[in-house]
Amino acid sequence: MKYTPRKEALLLLEDGTLFRGIALGKTGTIGGELCFNTGMTGYQEIYTDPSYFGQIILNTTSHIGNYGTLPADQESDTVKISGLVCNHFSTIYSRNTAELSLQEYFERANIVGIGEVDTRQIVKHIRNKGAMNAIISSEILDVAALHRKLLEVPPMNGLELSSQISTPKPFVLGSDEAEYKVAVLDLGIKTSILENLTSRNIQCKVFPAKTSFEEMNKWNPDGYFISNGPGDPAAMPYAVDTVKDIIETETPLFGICLGHQILALANDVSTYKLHNGHRGLNHPVKNLITGRGEITSQNHGFGVNEEDVKKNKHVEVTHINLNDKSVEGIRMKNGRAFSVQYHPESSPGPHDSRYLFDDFVKLIKNK
């Protein structure tokens, strides 16, 4: 668990703002959209969440790495973030069940990062100016050269990423004796979502992002699940077309995060880029059906257009964000499909919203 390099590293933002710190992880250079997560724990789950593919994550909590890493905490098979920005990066860990320090973990995953920077200052900057591209380097310390490299990083708006991290071929999870079968469109699904489904007497067949409805329907599922994932939902007409076809059959459908946005687009409800997104474990949401509040885990940079939902004959709002009043949940008025913007599997995060998986089972049962 030695950590000796202590090399200098640079963080350069799209608007020219520069931060100097200490290198962590692998020596190298990486660019992506810079966004912040306010969660106080669960860093390994965050780093392996496929929804973060193409993004540099800034953790707002002061200490990162202090409990090491463990295979059981993975939300996918590999680290999905592009890079890490943090304040204090711990090279030792206290959890006796951990297998690797975060430094060793990042070195194996070829992740570049920067520590010992003023994360409060950076968060205030992008909170006010909005999420923007950035680049981290522990090898290019010439600012002009680094800026030229940053210009090569594509903007998140219009970027299709799900097909790059989706499963390359279908696979089945859960018992052959399960009561229900759910076809899962993998746009970047988390392991804990699949666990929440299979633990409810569901067998899942997980399909690649660009699978057609016809191909999924051959399995004769009782319901469909549209997963979370990275990128701009408006750049994914293939997924929108698949969901439109599912809707036509009136088979029960449940979508989470990117799946929520795809369900909206399939109903001619537009999406838009949020100023700096919602990422953390403490976002308050109100369920408009029950009147109850939920503390939720969130990770998204795009939202669903509220005005479009209000004008739509087929869709209604079911949940709203109590911070900014943005749409957090919708359902089709025929009762056959629903979705939420946040993460009810809550890994990491509170468990207030896991009832949504039970609601999906009830919908299948009563179809």
From TrEMBL:
Its EC number is 6.3.5.5. Gene3D superfamilies: 3.40.50.880, Carbamoyl-phosphate synthase small subunit, N-terminal domain (3.50.30.20). Residues 1-180 are annotated as: CPSase. It comes from the Bacteria. Pathway: Amino-acid biosynthesis; L-arginine biosynthesis; carbamoyl phosphate from bicarbonate: step 1/1; Pyrimidine metabolism; UMP biosynthesis via de novo pathway; (S)-dihydroorotate from bicarbonate: step 1/3. Composed of two chains; the small (or glutamine) chain promotes the hydrolysis of glutamine to ammonia, which is used by the large (or ammonia) chain to synthesize carbamoyl phosphate. Tetramer of heterodimers (alpha,beta)4. This is Carbamoyl phosphate synthase small chain. It comes from Rhodocytophaga aerolata.
